[in-house]
Design goal:
Layout (H helix, E strand, L loop, with lengths): L2 H21 L40 H9 L17 H6 L7 H4 L11 H28 L11 E2 L1 H14 L7 H5 L4 E3 L12 E3 L12 H13 L2 H16 L4 H23 L1 H4 L5 H5 L16 E2 L20 H8 L8 H9 L5 H17 L1 H5 L3 H30 L16 H18 L3 H4 L4 H28 L2
Parallel strand pairs: 1-4
Antiparallel strand pairs: 2-3
Enzyme class: oxidoreductase
Pfam families: IDO (PF01231)
InterPro entries: Indolamine_dOase, Trp/Indoleamine_2_3_dOase-like
């Protein structure tokens, strides 16, 4: 490369680095040095998509009434006795005035320098989101637990004492005012049995809030949530590897820098998938549908045909939000954007795009920047210039495929075989939505493999050839399976 072109490439790499750091200004910071006035999901290369600090468990004393109701709420409480949901008494408890309107107290959640304390705001959002979902869906739980057909109708009005603080904290965090994956159900819903051990050992993880039996760390509800936490704790290396790969592509770096980035991403995804596989033992498929009742959303759900009125909000007009979903995690969307995986233009992909707004603001901005900059520098083209790097690109796509395939297996074994309800918790079609993204990555893998000259394909290792044979086989197998499920379910 000429000195002039080298200079241009260097300038472009610097521009990309600055672009990422414009939306992730603390990328290289020590999380312990960062203020709680920042969004807890501010991204660093050490915490990745996890919170900067261990989630806050206890709200200030002013919120004791809220805390007491949440402790009494689970079907089985921490001491093993039945809670309010066990006897369908949560709604009446709220309706009879047990929870005061604590909206003015949200304003008092400030740091010492008078800024909104977003770590405390997130803890309050989590707690009010749990209470809102339990209140709205308690009638559906009662119907399900009594063995009646279908979920029936949820409550159509969220009381002011829940709606006001939930909307206020959501506005502070710039997220929808409903149960979310990151800021409520999962990534801000863990604590440690032993603080010094931290997240290094799965057995040290505990839930803060639960609906069913999740305060028992051996329960399937705890396993479902905490396995996600155990997976995402590795995401810092994905963030670091993604920035390295973008830098390499932008500066037109040689194979060594590109391959180093790939090797970090590949090593990390191997660990993430090992953790993901432990879901089968941590959370039993037969148990899922019971606590799943409480994580449905409003959008596209038969339980809320007219939406939900949040008292005192939106001029009294009903609102509708998607429910909690592991699909709102940010790790695979990061790789989707980084590797430039094209999604088909159809309504299923529009749902995928809609999910973006349910992630924490720092996640949304970072993922958008990665997508835009991967397109700008041509990551896919950069990674397919020689066979060795193309194989690494294919191996990372394989991890995306494998992750999504396992997610499909979870959906099939935990839900599709056990429920006729047509939509997932997030409001997407339960049978066709995951295969939409899975087919997209397999299609890209096939075209990338076919782009390698035949004489060079014959020189790659046997496991890569077998990997691609498996992709072809699974594309056909998946389509037949989806068609069969759709036919059986009349969808």
């Amino acid at each position: 490369m000429s000195p002039y072109l080298t200079s241009l490439a260097s300038e472009e790499g610097e521009k990309i680095a600055k672009g990422l750091r414009h939306v992730a200004q603390h990328l290289d910071a020590d999380p312990t040095s960062l203020s709680t006035s920042l969004d807890p999901f501010t991204i660093t290369t050490s915490t990745g998509f996890m919170p900067l600090h261990t989630p806050i468990v206890d709200l200030p004393k002013a919120f004791d009434a809220l805390t007491k109701i949440l402790e009494e709420m689970p079907i089985v409480k921490e001491d093993g006795t039945p809670g309010l949901l066990a006897t369908y008494q949560l709604g009446p408890t709220i309706d009879y005035g047990a929870l005061p309107d604590l909206l003015p107290k949200i304003e008092e959640l400030q740091t010492v320098d008078g800024k909104p304390d977003l770590a405390l705001a997130t803890a309050a959002f989590r707690d009010y989101a749990f209470l809102a979902s339990a209140y709205l869906l308690e009638p559906c739980w009662e119907r399900w637990s009594k063995g009646l057909e279908g979920y029936g109708l949820g409550r159509a009005v969220l009381p002011r004492c829940i709606a006001g603080p939930l909307v206020k904290t959501a506005k502070l965090l710039d997220i929808p005012p409903f149960m979310s994956y990151a800021a409520a159900y999962t990534l801000y819903n863990y604590r440690f049995a032993n603080q010094s051990t931290g997240a290094s050992d799965y057995s040290n993880l505990r839930l803060v809030r639960a609906f069913e039996r999740g305060l028992d760390p051996t329960s399937s509800e705890a396993g479902f949530v905490l396995t996600h936490v155990d997976m995402v704790k590795h995401s810092g290396s994905l963030v670091k590897g993604a920035t390295q790969l973008l830098d390499a592509a932008a500066s037109n770096a040689g194979a060594e820098s590109t391959n180093d980035a790939f090797d970090l991403l590949l090593d990390t995804m191997r660990v993430v998938e090992e953790s993901m596989e432990s879901m089968w033992s941590h959370s039993k498929p037969k148990d899922y549908l019971s606590y799943r009742t409480f994580i449905f959303g409003i959008t596209n759900q038969s339980m809320f045909p007219e939406g939900v009125i949040y008292e005192g909000e939106n001029g009294g007009k009903p609102m509708s939000f998607r429910g909690e979903s592991g699909a709102n995690d940010s790790m695979i969307p990061l790789l989707d954007g980084l590797l430039q995986i094209p999604m088909p233009t159809n309504p299923l992909t529009e749902i995928l795009k809609d999910f973006r707004s349910y992630r924490p603001k720092p996640h949304r901005e970072f993922l958008a920047a990665v997508r835009e900059q991967a397109e700008e520098v041509g990551v896919r083209e950069h990674c397919c210039r020689d066979v060795d790097t193309t194989v690494r690109y294919l191996r990372l796509l394989e991890h995306v495929r494998s992750f999504r395939w396992r997610h499909w297996l979870f959906a099939r074994e935990y839900i599709i075989r056990r429920s006729t309800h047509p939509t997932a918790t997030g409001g997407s079609p339960i049978v066709t939505w995951l295969p939409n993204q899975l087919q997209a990555v397999m299609k890209l893998m096939t075209s990338t493999w076919e782009g390698i000259p035949a004489e060079q394909r014959s020189e790659v290792s046997k496991d890569v050839v077998e990997m691609m044979e498996n992709v072809v086989d699974q594309r056909d197998k998946l389509q037949k399976e989806v068609d069969r499920w759709c036919q059986e379910r009349g969808q």
